[in-house]
Amino acid sequence: MKNRILAAAGIAALMPLVAVSAEAAERWTCNVFTGPKHFVNKALKPWGKQVREVTKGEVRVNFLPTSAAPPPKQIDGIVAGTYDCAFIFHAFTAKRAIGPQFGILPFISRADAERGSVAFWRTWNKHFGPKKEFEDDGIKILSMFHFPGVHFWTSKDKPIASIDDLKSQKMWALAGTSSRTMKVAGVAHVSGPAARLAEFTQTKVVQGLAGITRGGIVNFAGIQFAKSGTFTSKTMMAPSFAWMVSKKRWDALSPAMQKAIMSVSGEKLARAVGVEADKFETVAARKLAKAGVVEVKASAQFEAALQKAAQPQIGAWLKRAATIGVDGAQVLADFDKIVGDLGS
Questions:
Q1: DSSP secondary-structure letter at 268?
Q2: How far apart are CA 51 and CA 253, in angstroms?
Q3: Would you say 229 and 288 are in contact if contact means Cβ atoms under 8 Å apart?
Q4: H or E element that contains 163
């Protein structure tokens, strides 16, 4: 009896230590504005488990069940302490940082999401990582990644094959890069976020779309909308994003802990997101093909006309990059070379 009492006392004495250890663990709450069913979770949630493993439980990552902030306000949510980590579309970081904007420039990407994500991370990290553009906002960048590039679609019988074809129908363009390219090309259009695309396609307000992926057609426009899609060799825009955490949270970690987390972030996470994005796009492609949607390749003449319309955006970014001492032309060349080196 005495031995049992002593053993019980020993266990009781250890319990407060275990509780203190659990409380001592850093707990990160992450926000995914696209919701828990989006394919990006298939890469981000395993990353959360990997963070716990490499930190031996010292950093534990939890994901909110629903988004706690609208897409443009992801950084604001971190700064306010609503959550600790999140990802953001770079169309919403233009005023905060120059560097990552190259990821959404028109007609610079010829890669699938996996290669594009790896190339984007490597190029950004080399040229802009040392600039620490987000640190004034209280943000630490953990990774950068791409989704698949966007294309042209029409509900008309004839595929889009020229600027004149774009002008001949009521067009919708994804807000930002795609819309600006269409404006320079002289194409009248309405624009907005992909999530609100159904408002225009299901009511037949528009007949053509400029700047949406296969997955976007399936999720937002509706499979029955398009009869054909026109694909350029370099996409008009590849949606690119940053995965980030509160700098305050990051600075609370030891250098060894930070190194451990970066070992499962950076390029590794970029590739993982790219792989999942490509898988989803492949599934969407099968659904569209089954529905009879035809995919055609844009002519060299059509693509050249589009690239000409894109030049003002590229030129403007090159000038902005120069203001922080970065050769933007070299950035774009490095990105393209990495994509090529990664193969097809």
A1: H
A2: 13
A3: yes
A4: helix 163-167
Per residue, what are the HEC states of 51-111? HHHHCCCCEEEEECCCCCCCHHHHHHHHHHCCCCEEEEEHHHCCCCCCHHHHHHCCCCECC
CB 172 within 8 A of CB 197: yes
Cβ pair 58, 257 in contact under 8 A? yes
Task: Look at residue 114 and tell me whether its pLDDT is greater than 80.
Answer: yes
- For 48, residues 6+ apart whose C-beta sits below 8 A from its C-beta are 30, 61, 62, 63
pLDDT over 50 (residue 187)? yes
Q: What would the 3-class secondary structure string for 278-294 be?
A: HHHHHHHHHHHHHCCCE
Residue 25: pLDDT band with limits 50, 70, 90: confident
Does residue 344 register a pLDDT over 70? Answer: no
**Whole-structure pTM value:** 0.90
Residue with tokens 């451990």: 260
Separation CA 306–CA 180 (nearest Å): 11
How many CA atoms, within 13 angstroms, populate the side-chain half-sphere of residue 54? Answer: 17
Distance CA 169, CA 172 (A): 10
* Digit-coded pLDDT (tens) for 139-150: 999 999 999 999
Percent of the chain exceeding pLDDT 70 equals: 93
The Cα 328–Cα 334 span in angstroms is 10
Kindly give, in sequence order, each residue whose CB lies less than 8 Å from that of residue 220, ignoring residues fewer than 6 positions away: 194, 195, 196, 197, 198, 201, 212
Report helix, strand or coil for 341: helix
Tell me the DSSP string of 10-62. Answer: HHHHHHHHHHHHHHHSEEEEEE-TT-TTSTTHHHHHHHHHHHHHHTTTSEEEE
Cα 246 to Cα 237: distance, rounded to the nearest angstrom: 28
DSSP-based helix, strand, coil % in the chain, nearest 5: 50, 15, 30
Whether the Cβ atoms of residue 140 and residue 253 lie closer than 8 Å to each other: no
What's at 76, amino acid-wise? Answer: D
pLDDT of amino acid 7: 43
